[in-house]
Design goal:
Elements lengths: L1 H6 L3 E4 L2 E4 L5 H12 L6 H9 L6 H11 L3 H18 L11 H20 L3 H25 L4 H20 L5 H14 L9 H17 L11 H17 L5 H16 L3 H15 L7 H18 L6 H10 L8 H16 L6 H17 L4 H8 L3
Antiparallel strand pairs: 1-2
């Protein structure tokens, strides 16, 4: 019997009697188990037969056995695996699947999740999209089982985080013709496997991802692109406004949506909407925690572009203040730096600036980053360069 063999690790024989590793005799352990379980059917005779392989623990009896002896989580997992194999064999089912500890699995996934978060923070969205996609393909087949048996499982937490990170990477990497379908799939899984830690944020996140997908679908960061689509710009703004109503103002996605609302207003020449939100921006950006640096900087850049388009003040003042507030800038942050340069070039186009040495350097830097991070930006940067 698989379980009987595995249990030999927890006792030894002394003068023909079983002595468990905490010094308890078989009778003493059986009594403690009986007391711990409120009489779960354990007595010395039953315990002796389990040790000899003549009968099997029930799942609840094995759980009490592990608790009484203080057996650690990974070893518990293995004992339950052995019990399951014994029951399978008893029912005539051969189980050849290797043992993989759920705690070890989570530690492995947690390490990869940490790496995914690091890629997100340094702006390597191509790497983020690839790594999170591989991990999701591994977890997706298990997600339904995890959720059905334990919706609050730590593995479900990891799955939700990966869906979020994959959606963020997709916003920079996915192609214009695939992003809506991919966003719909992610949204469906976010709704289907909502975890308690995130369930209150999910409706807002889903609207935020839809807003970004419409933004990419219409490619409206610059109207110079021939595929600019006003309908998608409208839909992006609407979804972003819905998300803002569902999220706290210190949430990264709230800032991303405020950026989309204001960018949509710029592209649709809706000065009133832009100026309405502009009143709140300076108050909001200086209440953000350090963790929101990237989203705050992107918002400040977009605000500057709108101020240039609508001639509403110094387009670079807010960004400079935000850099001073966080004591950082976006240099070296890969796709964030690329996006920032694109917005800066849009601002100079709106100001009808002429190309100079500084702008030529910025254009070249953006083209280099586009070739490394997201080819989708290349034509946009070239179109903007042609307007300077």
């Amino acid at each position: 019997m698989f379980l009987a063999e595995a249990l030999t690790k927890y006792y030894h024989r002394s003068r023909g009697r079983a002595v468990f590793r905490n010094g308890l005799s078989l009778n003493q352990l059986a009594l403690l188990m009986w007391e711990e379980s409120s009489a779960c059917g354990i007595d010395p005779s039953v315990l002796s037969k389990v040790l000899s392989g003549k009968r099997l623990f029930t799942a609840s009896q094995l759980r009490v056995f592990c608790t009484t002896l203080g057996i650690r989580r990974m070893d518990r997992d293995y004992l339950f695996y052995c019990l399951y194999k014994d029951y399978c064999r008893k029912d005539g089912v051969k189980l050849d699947a290797p043992f993989i500890s759920s705690s070890d699995t989570y530690q492995f996934i947690e390490a990869l999740l940490y790496e995914s978060e690091a890629l997100f923070l340094v702006g390597n969205w191509k790497g983020l999209y690839s790594l999170s996609g591989i991990m999701l393909s591994y977890l997706h087949g298990c997600a339904q089982t995890f959720y059905r048996h334990n919706p609050e499982s730590v593995l479900m937490v990891a799955y939700q985080k990966l869906l979020y990170l994959h959606a963020k990477g997709m916003g920079s990497v996915a192609t214009q013709d695939t992003i809506m379908q991919r966003t719909s799939t992610l949204a469906r899984n976010l709704r289907r496997y909502a975890h308690g830690d995130f369930i209150h944020l999910m409706p807002g996140y889903i609207e935020s991802f839809k807003s970004s997908a419409y933004r990419v679908r219409g490619l409206f960061p610059t109207p110079l692109n021939p595929t600019f689509n006003r309908t998608y710009a409208v839909m992006s703004g609407r979804c972003a406004a819905k998300a803002m109503a569902l999220l706290p103002p210190t949430n990264n996605e709230y800032l991303a949506c405020l950026r989309n609302v204001m960018d949509s207003a710029v592209m649709l020449e809706d000065k009133d909407t832009f100026l309405t939100h502009l009143k709140d921006v300076e108050r909001l950006v200086f209440m953000q925690p350090a963790a929101n640096f990237l989203a705050t900087m992107q918002l400040a850049g977009t605000v500057g572009k709108g101020m240039a388009v609508f001639k509403a003040g110094d387009p670079f003042a807010l960004k400079e203040k935000v850099e001073e507030y966080f004591n950082r800038n976006l240099a070296g942050t890969r796709v964030y730096e690329l996006s920032d340069i694109k917005v800066e070039l849009e601002t100079h186009v709106a100001l009808q600036a002429k190309k100079n040495v500084y702008l030529q350097q910025r254009i070249q830097r953006a083209l280099t980053l586009a070739s490394e991070e997201s080819n989708r930006y290349t034509d946009v940067i070239r179109a903007l360069a042609g307007q300077l």
